[in-house]
Amino acid sequence: MNLKDKLYIVTGAAIDSDIGLAICKKLDAHGAKLILIGRREEALEATRCQLVGDHYVVPYNLSRLDDILPWAKTINEKYGPIDGLVHSASFQGYSPLRSISAKQINNYFDVNFSAALMLTTAFSRTKYYSHNASFVYIGSVAGQRGLKARTLYAASKAALSSLVQSAALELAIKSIRVNCVAPAIVSGAKADKQFQTIGEHQSQALIAAHPLGLCAPEDVANSVYFLVSDLSLKITGTTLIVDGGFLAG
Length: 249
Ligand SMILES: NC(=O)c1ccc[n+]([C@@H]2O[C@H](COP(=O)([O-])OP(=O)(O)OC[C@H]3O[C@@H](n4cnc5c(N)ncnc54)[C@H](OP(=O)(O)O)[C@@H]3O)[C@@H](O)[C@H]2O)c1
Hints:
Blueprint: E1 7-11, H1 18-29, E2 33-38, H2 41-50, E3 56-59, H3 68-79, E4 82-87, H4 102-123, E5 129-138, H5 151-171, E6 177-183, H6 189-208, H7 217-228, E7 239-242
Parallel strand pairs: 1-2, 1-4, 2-3, 4-5, 5-6, 6-7
Helix pairs in contact: 1-7, 3-4, 4-5
Bound molecules: NADP nicotinamide-adenine-dinucleotide phosphate.
The site of NADP nicotinamide-adenine-dinucleotide phosphate has 28 residues, from helix 1 and helix 6.
């Protein structure tokens, strides 16, 4: 399915993001034009250098929730209506219950959930989106089951799965589809760091909990491509689990 002449916003598109970069490469390979969002301009430029097509780099801090509506207006004036958005930016980490603060709650929820919600609000306004637009948020299996010491990350990702259900109902009248992709841990730099932290024994157990093996970032990108393309025209309000079988066990 060709995405030529289609325009997508991809947040979390920095060169050192595992999944964001893979999504950019996948959509670029199918001819889409991308608006790359993240806080570090040089990290977005580095991603743009890896891509074939002409794309736009727009540094923005998604924690500035109050500014998202006016910021979206400038994007719309400059680049026109979008065919979809992929919200991959996130705040990740551990949050044991004994150490949780109000600031920490905001850190997780602002980027992982509230920014997704405000982007949806902004880009579902008339003239901000094209016919059959598709909005995709990157959730996590953490939002589908309990994970020790990860309450805030897990809850912020669970909120995304709830968001797509309600938003899908409200935006169907505009032919906008809204879906979530929920990966398990993917291979890459972050996974390697985590394996180093937890040691050989626990790493093997974690890998074994994925019957099909760990997903690569490209596996997640393939699902995003499916959900933004017309291959999934009748799919909305759902969370697509991409986890090598992790949740099946
Ligand atoms: N990696 C995994 O194993 C895994 C597993 C399950 C789910 N996920 C989910 O998949 C998505 C991608 O994961 P990832 O590990 O590739 O990327 P990530 O490191 O979580 O985030 C990608 C980029 O988001 C940007 N970002 C963070 N805060 C931002 C903010 N306030 N405003 C704008 N941009 C911001 C950062 O770039 P800047 O610093 O330049 O802003 C960062 O490089 C995330 O939603 C993550 O929760 C990942």
